[in-house]
Every structure is written in structure tokens, then in C-alpha cells.
Design goal:
Elements: E1 7-11, H1 19-32, E2 36-39, H2 47-50, H3 57-63, E3 66-71, H4 73-82, E4 90-94, H5 109-117, E5 121-133, E6 139-142, E7 145-149, E8 157-163, E9 166-173, E10 175-179, H6 187-190, E11 202-208, E12 218-221, E13 226-230, E14 238-241, E15 245-248, E16 254-269, H7 274-282
Parallel strand pairs: 1-2, 1-3, 3-4
Antiparallel strand pairs: 5-6, 5-16, 7-10, 7-14, 8-9, 8-13, 10-11, 11-12, 13-16, 14-15
Length: about 290
């Protein structure tokens, strides 16, 4: 049988004890199908089983046709930035508690993985957010959210918000969450933000514990340019991308957030449904009405 992929790589950032046996199982399934398998340095323990050396991230980016991320959404976020943003499609095996980005449960690995390598899967395109601070050289990407926060409990920060050069408001709050549709089921959801279907081309802005009762989340086009100017003189604010990179902010700093240039291709097994994932992972009613 001719399979869809000839070279698949494995990656993880999880320390879950289930990772190694699952990776060994995946390796066996793929090699039995005649597919070349490689893995990054986080799977160095797998070398004892496979007798092959781990590969560099550059090797995986150049050669892998699919990356299998084994872990929770944290692993998926890490793999998305490292590999997905460089054009490698990603399939997730879920070891986490919620896992909106990871699809395959450990008990379904064999059947679901065989379906995928035969070509029975759904491709799902997601966009990254790009973030930069004026007069600084660094730029960042985030799949879920870019967050400006005070860095302390019960400490307000003050900022001005502009969208497409139009002034929106001056706000005092614990912070501001700017998220993509992928991030609407992550940090933003915990803060009371709306759930956004991943097919929508929008960006959501959610103030964190604002000092005004009439402040609501905003949903804008993914083509919008969002600018936040830090006002607080004794500012100790921090800029965070997917809870990964952190940048200390100063008074007068201007942060620009917009749709990033790279995109991500997620691979889902056939039958994947966003609303079914919401029912299963968020505890929505599972009874089906008669239509």
C-alpha cells in the first residue's frame, strides 16, 4: 500500500511517563508501514529502543512531511512555534487534560494513525499572531495569545488601545489578552472571553479585570493592526507570548500586534468536529436533540 507520508518526525516537551512508551508504539506502527521515522533531542531516550540517533530541528524542518507532537497543548504550542511556523504540518497525540489542539487519545493511536498515513485526514489552517515593541529589534509569534499583564497579583496597569490608528480607549486593568481563534479556548476562555470557531479570521481583545464595569471583549478583523501604549509611570508590565517568551515593558513602550506571516497546518483524523471537542472537553450537554 502507498502511504501519504514517507518521512514523519516525533517531538515532545512533556515529562509525562507515558510519552516514551507511546513514542515507541508510534515508531513501530510507522516503521512497519515502511515510513522513515526521525525524532528530536527531546526523545533522546528513544535511541535505546530504535538504535538511531535523534535529529536536529533543522533536519526535521527540511525533511519531515508530518510532525507528531506527543503531549498536551503546551507541547503543541512549542511544536507549532518551532516546526509548524516553518511549514511542517502537525498531528497531536493528547496526553493533557483538555487538549483542544491535540486530537488522538492514547487508546486510539493505532487505528487513528493508520487512517492518517493512508490519507484519511482533515487539514486545518491556523494563523499566528505577531508581536513587537517599538524601538526594539526582537519580534515574536504566538499561536494562542499575546498578553500584557502586570506581573503581580491585584496590580493595575494603564494603557491606551488603538486599532488601525483609531483610538479605542484608555484602560486600567490587570492586563489585556489579545488572542487568535486558536486561543479562544485557552487563557481567554478562563477570563470569560468568547469561544471563536477556528475557521473565523478574527482577533479577540479581552481586558483582564478592568477597572470599569462597562468594558467588554472586542472582536476585530485579523487584518487589523493593534497598538497598545503603556501609560503607567511605575509600570512593571510584562509582554508574554503563549506564556513562553516574556518581555519587560516600560512607560511609553508601544506594542504592535497583528496577524503573523507564518501559518500553521494542523492535521486532524477524519470526523474531527470542533463542537464535539467543545462538548467533550468543556462538559457541554452531550444529549443530541431530534431535528
Amino acid at each position: 500500500m502507498k502511504y501519504k507520508f514517507s518521512h514523519i518526525s516525533l517531538s515532545t516537551s512533556s515529562e509525562d511517563i507515558r510519552v516514551l512508551p507511546i513514542a515507541t508504539q508510534v515508531h513501530e506502527i510507522l516503521t512497519n508501514a515502511g515510513i522513515k521515522v526521525s525524532y528530536d533531542k527531546n526523545f533522546s531516550l528513544l535511541e535505546r529502543v530504535t538504535k538511531t540517533k535523534h535529529k536536529s530541528s533543522n533536519y526535521i524542518i527540511k525533511n519531515a512531511e508530518l510532525l507528531i507532537a506527543i503531549g498536551g497543548d503546551g507541547t503543541m504550542l512549542n511544536c507549532s512555534r518551532k516546526y509548524g511556523s516553518r511549514g511542517v504540518p502537525i498531528l497531536g497525540i493528547n496526553l493533557g487534560n483538555v487538549g483542544f489542539l491535540t486530537d488522538i487519545a492514547p487508546k486510539e493511536i493505532t487505528s487513528r494513525l493508520l487512517e492518517v498515513i493512508k490519507g484519511d485526514f482533515i487539514s486545518d489552517e491556523r494563523f499566528f499572531l505577531g508581536a513587537s515593541v517599538e524601538k526594539r529589534k526582537e519580534s515574536f509569534i504566538a499561536l494562542n495569545e499575546v498578553v500584557i499583564h502586570s506581573g503581580a497579583i491585584a496590580q493595575l496597569i494603564e494603557f491606551d488601545l488603538y486599532i488601525d490608528d483609531s483610538f479605542v480607549y484608555r484602560q486600567k486593568a490587570d492586563g489585556l489578552i489579545v488572542n487568535s481563534p486558536s486561543g479562544s479556548t485557552a487563557y481567554s476562555l478562563s477570563g470569560g472571553g468568547p469561544i471563536v470557531h477556528p475557521n473565523l479570521d478574527v482577533i479577540t481583545l479581552l481586558p483582564m479585570f478592568p477597572h470599569r464595569l462597562n468594558t467588554s471583549p472586542l472582536v476585530v478583523s485579523d487584518q487589523s493592526k493593534i497598538r497598545i501604549k503603556m501609560i503607567e509611570k511605575k509600570n512593571k508590565a510584562v509582554l508574554s507570548m503563549d506564556s513562553h517568551n516574556s518581555v519587560k515593558l516600560r512607560e511609553g513602550d508601544v506594542i504592535t500586534i497583528c496577524k503573523g506571516k507564518p501559518s500553521l497546518t494542523l492535521i486532524h483524523p477524519e470526523g474531527h468536529d470542533f463542537f464535539e471537542a467543545c462538548r467533550n472537553k468543556l462538559g457541554w450537554s452531550s444529549s443530541l436533540p431530534n431535528i
